[in-house]
Amino acid sequence: MVNRAIPHSDAWFAALEKFNPTQAAHSRYIVKAAGSTSVCSVCGDTPTTDFEVVGPSIEPDAPVIFRLCDDCYGIRAAAGGRKKLVLLCRSGVRSIAAAKRATELGAEAYNILEGFEGNTDDQGHRGLIGGWRKRGLPWKQN
Ligand SMILES: [Zn+2]
Fold it and tell me: Which fold has domain 81-142?
């Protein structure tokens, strides 16, 4: 039976604890810390949207509605059902945050240290002291 409990309700937490106790504990902590049930189940950000998971592999009685912010939804959508992600940004700061969120969402995520251009040097310039490009790894610009 499909469980359409409202995210962060007592019924939703009870169902999630049976299905994924780690995620339930994490979401309880997030909601309590935020002092609101209107926050993202994964990171506590707002605004959020409720999404319903559909498909043949839904476990009976597992909650199917999840409350996610745009970032967490985007990570989940980008994964497209794949379980492994490799994330790269300019300096590695945003991609490590994204990798942490992807991991919380159930993916196996890796961050590329230093990002594409690395940190800034003493002059405030990137691309000179680290990063994918500086290390001579393959890349192509469109
Ligand atoms: Zn989020």
Answer: Oxidized Rhodanese; domain 1 (3.40.250)
Residue 136 CA to ligand 1 centre (angstroms): 34
pTM of model > 0.90? no
The 10 Å Cβ neighbour count of residue 35 is 8
Is the peptide bond between 63 and the residue preceding it cis, with omega within 30 degrees of 0?
no
Distances (CA, A) of 22 to 18, 42, 91: 10, 11, 31
Q: How far is the CA of 9 from the centre of ligand 1 (A)?
A: 18
Give me the residue label for tokens 């940190």: 119
What would the pLDDT profile of 87-142 be if each residue is shown by its tens digit?
889 998 888 888 888 787 777 888 999 999 999 999 999 999 999 999 999 999 88
Per-domain boundaries in the chain = 1-79, 81-142
Q: How many angstroms separate the alpha carbon of residue 43 from the centre of ligand 1? A: 4
